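Give me the fold.
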Amino acid sequence: MSGEKVSIKVSKELYEKAEKFIKESGGFSNVDELVEFLLNEVLAEEGSEYKLSKEEEEEVKKRLRSLGYI
C-alpha cells in the first residue's frame, strides 16, 4: 500500500520502545514502517472471519505489551 503519508503522534517513551524493538529484532527499517505494518495487520484482521487461538491471542498480547501498546 502506498500513497500520501500523514503524521501520527505517539509518546516519546513509546517511540523509543519501538526504536529499541527494531534494533533488537530487525525486520523494519524505521518506526514508521513498524507502525504501518501493525496498523495494516490489526485493520486487516478486523474485517476477517479468522479467529485467533488462545495461544495466538496471548502471543499477540505479549508482543503488544513489550512494545508498550498495552
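The first helix runs from residue 12 to 25.
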